């Protein structure tokens, strides 16, 4: 959650909304910001080791069971699901 929330505030609109809930034996976190995500497939490829930034979504994908990113008229949404 930390990597995604940091990205939302740093790269988005400097404010973000975080929602957290616990269905069954999982933890789900959704973070929304008003920014636009240019990468259509964020975090699917390993980051360039020569760059100082660009690892947040990739790290989040490695640490959770499901990570879904989508954009709409309101901005960017990232939903993370992990076993509790």
Topology record:
Blueprint: H1 2-11, E1 16-21, E2 26-33, H2 56-63, E3 66-72, E4 75-83
Antiparallel strand pairs: 1-2, 2-4, 3-4
Helix pairs in contact: 1-2
Task: Give a quick summary of the entry.
By secondary structure, this protein is α+β, with helices and mostly antiparallel strands.
Give a verbal description of the structure:
With 84 residues, this protein is an alpha+beta fold. Helix content is 21%, strand content 36%. The protein contains two helices and four strands; from the N terminus they run H-E-E-H-E-E. It has helices at 2-11, 56-63, and strands at residues 16-21, 26-33, 66-72, 75-83. The chain has a four-stranded antiparallel β-sheet. A hairpin with a 2-residue loop joins strand 3 (66-72) and strand 4. Helix 1 (2-11) runs antiparallel to helix 2 (56-63). The protein is globular.
Structural class: alpha+beta
Order of helices and strands: HEEHEE
State the major sheet.
4 strands, antiparallel
What is the number of E strands?
4
Q: What is the general shape?
A: globular
- The radius of gyration over CA amounts to 13 Å
SS summary, helix count: 2
Low-confidence stretches: none
Strand content: 35-45%
Helicity range: 10-25%
**Widest β-sheet, arrangement of strands:** 1-2-4-3
Overall pLDDT? 90
The CA-CA distance between the termini, in Å, is 14 Å
Main attributes of the structure:
84 residues, four-stranded antiparallel beta sheet, 4 strands
């Amino acid at each position: 959650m930390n990597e995604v929330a940091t990205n939302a505030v740093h790269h988005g609109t400097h404010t973000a909304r975080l929602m957290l809930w616990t269905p069954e034996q999982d933890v789900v976190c959704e973070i929304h910001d008003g920014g636009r995500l240019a990468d259509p497939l964020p975090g699917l490829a390993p980051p360039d080791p020569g760059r100082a930034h660009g690892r947040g979504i990739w790290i989040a994908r490695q640490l959770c069971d499901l990570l879904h990113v989508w954009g709409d008229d309101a901005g960017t949404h990232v939903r993370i699901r992990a076993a509790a």
